[in-house]
Specification:
Layout lengths: L4 E5 L10 H9 L2 E6 L6 H6 L7 E6 L10 H21 L4 E5 L9 H8 L5 E4 L4 H9 L10 E5 L4 H9 L3 E5 L5 H10 L7 E4 L7 E4 L12 E5 L3 H4 L4 H4 L3 E2 L2 E2 L2 E6 L10 H9 L2 E5 H4 L9 E5 L4 H13 L3 E6 L8 H12 L5 E4 L4 H9 E2 L5 E5 L7 H13 L3 E5 L9 H9 L8 E6 L7 E6 L12 E5 L5 E4 L2 E3 L6
Parallel strand pairs: 1-4, 1-5, 2-3, 2-4, 6-7, 13-16, 13-17, 14-15, 14-16, 18-25, 19-20
Antiparallel strand pairs: 7-10, 8-9, 8-10, 11-12, 20-23, 21-22, 21-23, 24-25
């Protein structure tokens, strides 16, 4: 009969935080295994030291930790395979093996790599432990999450821009694996607007425990065994924050702010960290219902959706909220400054709300997203023109199309058609054919980044107006634009 493999969480550092089950298994084990670096010291072993006696100890020494190597993952894979073989020899001999893990075995723990290699061959049991995140919250005396809040646990090894986006989009967060990543983590917290909320906890629950506002911590002093915590906002939201206390006061009345936010073309990963931070900080979200639906639900926020044809009214509504002290995000698809809400908000604010701060956060435009799908059709000079004649007469559209076509620039055509505008695409195509070769490539991008995305390249002469709708963006190439292969278009930066 083989022995049993136990993955045992021994908690964050204080031996008294070990579970009764963990203590019993360590004391009764035939073999106790633990991971360590080349120096031989193990935090997990130090936690269980008082319970060790005649057990065989297996020291599993990492071949690499933070140093560089040509094949880091390959070295670790070989190490785990060799370690698993060592433990398998004990199990085959009928010995029970306890692999101790600081915190919880399945929470960024090295035990999991042994479990995956051995659990299909031997009886196993995993004993959970108190995590460093739970210990850090206890050390701070701050709730991690309350009510409907969302907690996100992140590794500090993520790229800072991805960290910033995830931090901005969640209610509360814990960032693990600091040490050498600390500078990047702090930069991500600053970018996401969460640095003032962040706390630093080092070696939670031990005699060496240290806590501090994260912004005040010297990066050179940060060990790997530390956690960044952005705790629950519920308590903070009931007490005036420093930011609220220092809000602009005009005419004796505290006012909020309107931030016009570009959501990008659709995919979540195209949302910039700055935009995610602005959305996370908002108390009210205002916009066309199709766009407000793309903002992750947040129980702290009020969402005000409206029809797509009331830009000025929507802007005034948002500015009224901000004048009353609210932090308001007005959302637009793509970039808010490209045929979108930024112009309406700034115009209404300039005329009727000069006391309300307005800020614009750019986004990835639809033209950029469609262009990227096929290469670089906008690689040289280009123009953006809306074919909608709802806010300007068609003769103005025609004059501008003719001028740009005559100037031989690529053109991104927004708002080409709708249910009530069905003839403009044909009129624009026929006008452009007076200036462009019939074989000029036209990129037809529909619902880019959406569930019904299609991107095609056709000749200008073959553009079918009936296949174009409001969710479509067209990019018409210049005379220098090239179409070397299906689905690839570029406009060289050199001219002539």
């Amino acid at each position: 009969m083989t022995g049993t493999l136990y993955g045992v969480g021994v908690g964050p550092g204080d031996p008294s935080l070990m579970t009764v089950r963990a203590v019993d298994l360590v004391r009764a084990a035939d073999v106790v295994a633990y991971h360590c670096a080349r120096h031989g010291r193990s935090n997990a072993r130090a936690i269980v030291a008082q319970h060790l006696g005649t057990q065989v100890e297996e020291q599993l020494t990492y071949p690499v930790t933070t140093e560089s190597t040509d094949d880091y993952q390959g070295a670790l894979d070989a190490f785990y395979a060799e370690a698993a073989a060592r433990l398998a020899a004990h199990l085959d001999a009928g010995r029970d093996v306890v692999v101790i893990a600081e915190g919880d075995p399945f929470f960024y723990g090295s035990y999991m790599h042994l479990h995956k290699r051995l659990a299909d061959r031997y009886p196993t049991e995993v004993v959970p432990g108190v995590t460093s995140v739970a210990a850090a919250a206890a050390a701070l005396g701050r709730p991690l999450v309350e009510r409907d809040e969302v907690l996100t646990v992140l590794p500090g090894t993520l790229p800072p821009d991805e960290l910033a986006a995830r931090l901005a989009a969640t209610d509360a967060a814990a960032v693990m694996k600091l040490g050498r990543t600390f500078t990047g983590v702090r930069a991500a917290l600053a970018t996401s607007g969460r640095l003032d909320e962040a706390h630093y906890v080092e070696r939670a629950s031990t005699e060496a425990q240290r806590t501090a506002p994260l912004a005040d911590v010297d990066p050179a002093s940060v060990p790997y065994f530390s956690v960044a915590v952005v705790p629950s906002r519920v308590h903070a939201d009931t007490t005036p924050t420093a930011r609220e206390e220092t809000a602009a006061v005009i005419a004796g009345r505290a006012v909020g702010e309107v931030v016009v936010v570009g959501l990008g073309p659709g995919a979540r990963d195209r949302l910039t960290p700055e935009a995610a931070a602005a959305l996370a900080a908002a108390e009210d979200v205002v916009g066309y219902t199709t766009y407000t639906a793309r903002v992750p639900p947040n129980p702290r926020q009020r969402v005000h959706g409206s029809d797509n044809k009331v830009e000025s009214e929507r802007a005034a509504f948002a500015l009224d909220l901000a004048r009353g002290g609210r932090r308001v995000a007005v959302v637009s698809s793509g970039d808010p400054g490209v045929f979108a809400m930024a112009s309406a908000v700034v115009e209404v604010a300039a005329a009727d709300y000069p006391d309300v701060p307005v800020r614009v956060v750019p986004g990835v435009s639809a033209a950029q997203a469609v262009a990227a799908r096929v290469g670089a059709p906008l690689g040289h000079d280009y123009a953006m023109i809306s074919l909608s004649d709802r806010l300007k007469p068609w003769d103005v559209v025609e004059r501008r199309l003719a001028a740009v076509a005559d100037a031989d620039m690529a053109i991104a055509l927004y708002n080409p058609a709708s249910r009530s505008r069905t003839w403009q695409v044909e009129a624009a195509r026929d006008l452009l054919l007076k200036y462009r070769d019939p074989a000029t490539p036209v990129v037809v991008g529909r619902d880019v980044d959406g569930p019904e995305e299609t991107v095609r390249v056709v000749r200008l002469a073959d553009l079918v107006p009936a296949e174009v709708d409001m969710r479509t963006l067209l990019i018409v190439g210049a005379s220098t634009s090239r179409w070397p292969a299906p689905g690839t278009v570029y406009t060289p930066r050199r001219y002539g």
